[in-house]
Amino acid sequence: MTMTIRWLNYLWQEPHPATLDEIELLERQWDVQFPEEYKKVVSLHQGMTPEPCVFDVGRGTDVFNTLLTICEDERWRVYSVRGTYQALKHHVPPGIYPFGDTPGGQYVCFDYRTTPKQPKIVLVTVETDIHPIADSFSDFLAMLHD
Protein backbone atom coordinates (compact mmCIF):
# COMPACT_ATOMS: atom_id res chain seq x y z
CA MET A 1 0.00 0.00 0.00
CA THR A 2 1.48 3.34 -1.06
CA MET A 3 0.96 6.19 1.35
CA THR A 4 0.25 9.70 0.15
CA ILE A 5 3.11 12.06 0.92
CA ARG A 6 2.26 15.40 2.48
CA TRP A 7 4.95 18.04 2.06
CA LEU A 8 5.33 20.31 5.07
CA ASN A 9 6.96 23.73 5.15
CA TYR A 10 10.47 23.59 6.57
CA LEU A 11 12.80 26.32 5.28
CA TRP A 12 10.16 28.83 4.26
CA GLN A 13 6.73 29.65 5.66
CA GLU A 14 5.09 28.92 2.29
CA PRO A 15 5.94 26.77 -0.75
CA HIS A 16 8.92 28.09 -2.70
CA PRO A 17 8.72 26.43 -6.14
CA ALA A 18 11.82 25.77 -8.25
CA THR A 19 11.45 26.85 -11.86
CA LEU A 20 12.00 24.59 -14.84
CA ASP A 21 14.85 26.92 -15.90
CA GLU A 22 16.58 26.45 -12.53
CA ILE A 23 16.20 22.65 -12.75
CA GLU A 24 17.44 22.50 -16.37
CA LEU A 25 20.44 24.73 -15.54
CA LEU A 26 21.45 22.31 -12.78
CA GLU A 27 21.03 19.34 -15.15
CA ARG A 28 23.38 21.05 -17.63
CA GLN A 29 25.91 21.96 -14.90
CA TRP A 30 26.00 18.38 -13.60
CA ASP A 31 25.51 16.79 -17.06
CA VAL A 32 22.65 14.61 -15.82
CA GLN A 33 19.01 14.03 -16.64
CA PHE A 34 16.88 14.08 -13.48
CA PRO A 35 13.95 11.65 -13.23
CA GLU A 36 10.66 13.29 -14.27
CA GLU A 37 9.09 12.50 -10.89
CA TYR A 38 11.94 14.33 -9.10
CA LYS A 39 11.51 17.38 -11.34
CA LYS A 40 7.79 17.47 -10.50
CA VAL A 41 8.40 17.06 -6.76
CA VAL A 42 11.29 19.54 -6.44
CA SER A 43 9.51 22.11 -8.59
CA LEU A 44 6.72 22.20 -6.01
CA HIS A 45 8.34 21.15 -2.72
CA GLN A 46 12.01 22.19 -2.54
CA GLY A 47 13.05 23.03 1.02
CA MET A 48 10.11 21.06 2.44
CA THR A 49 9.96 17.90 4.52
CA PRO A 50 7.87 14.84 3.60
CA GLU A 51 5.38 13.07 5.83
CA PRO A 52 5.76 10.12 6.17
CA CYS A 53 9.54 10.45 6.18
CA VAL A 54 11.08 7.16 7.41
CA PHE A 55 12.89 4.88 4.96
CA ASP A 56 14.62 1.53 5.31
CA VAL A 57 18.33 1.28 4.63
CA GLY A 58 20.43 -1.78 5.36
CA ARG A 59 19.17 -3.37 8.56
CA GLY A 60 17.77 -0.15 9.99
CA THR A 61 15.84 2.99 9.16
CA ASP A 62 16.63 6.64 8.62
CA VAL A 63 14.62 9.84 8.13
CA PHE A 64 14.29 11.89 4.94
CA ASN A 65 14.47 15.34 6.54
CA THR A 66 14.64 17.98 3.79
CA LEU A 67 14.27 18.06 0.02
CA LEU A 68 17.34 20.14 -0.82
CA THR A 69 16.82 23.36 -2.76
CA ILE A 70 17.58 24.00 -6.41
CA CYS A 71 17.25 27.78 -6.16
CA GLU A 72 20.04 29.78 -4.59
CA ASP A 73 19.05 31.38 -1.29
CA GLU A 74 22.01 32.55 0.81
CA ARG A 75 20.09 32.05 4.07
CA TRP A 76 19.65 28.38 3.29
CA ARG A 77 22.92 27.55 1.49
CA VAL A 78 23.39 24.54 3.77
CA TYR A 79 20.19 23.11 2.24
CA SER A 80 21.23 23.79 -1.36
CA VAL A 81 21.96 20.87 -3.72
CA ARG A 82 24.91 22.84 -5.13
CA GLY A 83 26.39 23.65 -1.73
CA THR A 84 25.91 20.09 -0.53
CA TYR A 85 27.44 18.70 -3.71
CA GLN A 86 30.48 20.99 -3.31
CA ALA A 87 30.97 19.63 0.23
CA LEU A 88 30.50 15.99 -0.84
CA LYS A 89 32.14 15.73 -4.27
CA HIS A 90 35.69 15.18 -3.01
CA HIS A 91 34.52 12.34 -0.73
CA VAL A 92 32.30 10.29 -3.06
CA PRO A 93 32.81 8.75 -6.52
CA PRO A 94 31.76 10.81 -9.57
CA GLY A 95 28.09 10.34 -10.47
CA ILE A 96 26.65 10.81 -6.95
CA TYR A 97 24.47 13.89 -6.49
CA PRO A 98 22.55 14.85 -3.32
CA PHE A 99 18.87 15.77 -3.26
CA GLY A 100 17.92 15.28 0.40
CA ASP A 101 19.34 15.16 3.89
CA THR A 102 18.73 13.36 7.18
CA PRO A 103 18.69 14.79 10.72
CA GLY A 104 22.03 13.01 11.34
CA GLY A 105 23.91 14.86 8.60
CA GLN A 106 23.72 12.12 5.99
CA TYR A 107 22.60 12.64 2.41
CA VAL A 108 20.06 10.96 0.17
CA CYS A 109 21.57 10.99 -3.32
CA PHE A 110 21.07 10.05 -6.92
CA ASP A 111 23.60 7.46 -8.06
CA TYR A 112 24.23 7.76 -11.79
CA ARG A 113 27.34 5.51 -11.81
CA THR A 114 25.76 2.41 -13.35
CA THR A 115 22.40 3.72 -14.58
CA PRO A 116 22.80 7.15 -16.22
CA LYS A 117 19.21 7.22 -17.52
CA GLN A 118 17.55 5.98 -14.31
CA PRO A 119 19.67 6.81 -11.26
CA LYS A 120 19.47 4.59 -8.21
CA ILE A 121 18.97 6.17 -4.78
CA VAL A 122 21.70 5.82 -2.15
CA LEU A 123 22.48 7.10 1.32
CA VAL A 124 25.89 8.71 1.86
CA THR A 125 26.78 8.51 5.54
CA VAL A 126 28.88 11.00 7.52
CA GLU A 127 31.75 8.52 7.09
CA THR A 128 31.04 8.75 3.31
CA ASP A 129 29.98 5.10 3.11
CA ILE A 130 27.41 4.54 0.35
CA HIS A 131 24.35 2.37 1.05
CA PRO A 132 21.71 1.44 -1.55
CA ILE A 133 18.14 2.51 -0.77
CA ALA A 134 15.99 2.19 -3.91
CA ASP A 135 16.18 1.52 -7.66
CA SER A 136 14.54 4.84 -8.57
CA PHE A 137 13.27 8.12 -7.14
CA SER A 138 9.67 6.90 -7.52
CA ASP A 139 10.51 3.70 -5.62
CA PHE A 140 12.16 5.79 -2.90
CA LEU A 141 9.06 7.95 -2.43
CA ALA A 142 6.85 4.85 -2.43
CA MET A 143 8.87 3.28 0.39
CA LEU A 144 8.55 6.23 2.81
CA HIS A 145 6.60 5.21 5.92
CA ASP A 146 5.85 6.30 9.49
Automatic annotation (TrEMBL):
InterPro entries the record matches: Knr4/Smi1-like_dom, Knr4/Smi1-like_sf
Pfam family, one: SMI1_KNR4
Ranges for domain Knr4/Smi1-like: 17-143
Top-rank taxon: Bacteria
Lineage, highest ranks first: Bacteria, Pseudomonadati, Myxococcota, Myxococcia, Myxococcales
Database matches in SUPFAM superfamilies: SMI1/KNR4-like
This protein's name: SMI1/KNR4 family protein
Organism for this UniProt entry: Archangium minus
